[in-house]
Structure prediction request, 73 residues.
Amino acid sequence: LGVGASGWILQFTGFDAKQDIQTPEAIFWIRILLSGIPVIGLVLALVAILRFPLTEARMLQIRGKLEATRGTV
Prediction:
């Protein structure tokens, strides 16, 4: 996903492959977007993990269900 989006990000920033030197604005936006988007994704993933209710009792319940189904596989 990240590799595919890189082309769109470069197009959005004003990157021109024909130029030897890119404009300062293009370099700024490339840096912001290519570093900011993964950070936003990481924050969203951390929020999702923190909101997932996984207590020790719940883990034991899940383990019991898994062990019960393994015998039938």
Remarks:
- Helices lie at 2-13, 24-51, 56-70.
- The two ends are 35 Å apart (CA to CA).
- Residues 48 and 54 are 12 Å apart (CA to CA).
- The first helix runs from residue 2 to 13.
